[in-house]
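2024-03-11 09:14:02 DEBUG pipeline.ingest accepted 1 chain
2024-03-11 09:14:02 DEBUG pipeline.ingest length=355
2024-03-11 09:14:03 DEBUG pipeline.predict start
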Amino acid sequence: MKVLYSKHGFCHNRAMMYIDYIYPHQTQAMKQLTAFLEAQNLAFEPIDVAIVLKEKDKIIGSCCRLGNVIKMVAIDPKHQSMNLLDQLMSAMQVHLFDAGYTNSFIYSPTHNRDIFRVYHYQEIMQVQQVSLLEQGQPVIHEVINDLIKRYNPHLIESGALVINGNPFTLGHQYLIETAAAQVQQLLVFVVEEDVSFFDFKTRMDLIEAGTSHLDNVVVLPSSQYIISQTTFPNYFLRNLDDHFKLFALFDAHLFGRYFSQLNITKRFVGEEPLDLMTHAYNQTLLAVLPEYKMQVEVVPRKHNELGVISASKVRELLKRGDYETLKSYVPQTTFDFLKNNPNYEQKAKDYERAH
């Protein structure tokens, strides 16, 4: 059925169709979106915005995003047409560009992946009949090639670990020192997503300062392909739901398939007796990475006289302004930073999230 577009909307059998935008604060509109998705057998997930196609104020199509991840793409069966999908995808691409994104991702059932290839999306990983596709710049091959050019990893065998460092503690320092003693070069990937108490630049600076005495340690951003809103949104939502296993598998397989090109033969993780999510993630890495000839080593957590050292404990002490006790949890570089930036103490008092 032919669909015509005008600047006022879509003319479809004399019924006006138009594009609309729905944001999380719009309660009634979100209820309408949720009902539409449920009718298409799709569960609602957190989003930044939904672009919807409406006919007489009724939603007949949706295309949503969280960050630069497109999700919950659906067309009502009575109106299914590639042309309608074209309009939603075109509107989303313009919206992503206006929001400052140069690339984007889509999770799709593998049997539907060819639909999105029309829009220049290419599959980079498939897990349990779900495909992750991307388009734009940079793509994962460009990211890996850039790292290879910068670090020439084929000349040296490397280990790797991934930390958030929120903030950098004596536990993190012990983990890095232990790992660095076992490999020629240790690549420390710092989680780049800016959704933690301490922003990415601050975390990166504190980790570089706290590891400056280790000559074989390279500190670098994690990219969009390691524990990010793209590969592992549950990590930031702190949600151990049914999707957790799938996203953990995507994250682990992406690391194994692509980052193994950096000649990484061993990945280190910290033992996690407190956080069930991190423990489950570690178990996924232990199961998956050997498929890519990567050994996974779990390093026991560092303790002090008060118990396990954790970043959450540091944030708790900061909230109380207990700098005397905090000294036992962080390197001098982190302690000096916190003492010299008292605004973080007030921020901690107002902070309610667990991450």
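2024-03-11 09:14:41 DEBUG pipeline.report Residues 1-14, 235-240 have pLDDT under 50 and may be disordered.
2024-03-11 09:14:41 DEBUG pipeline.predict end
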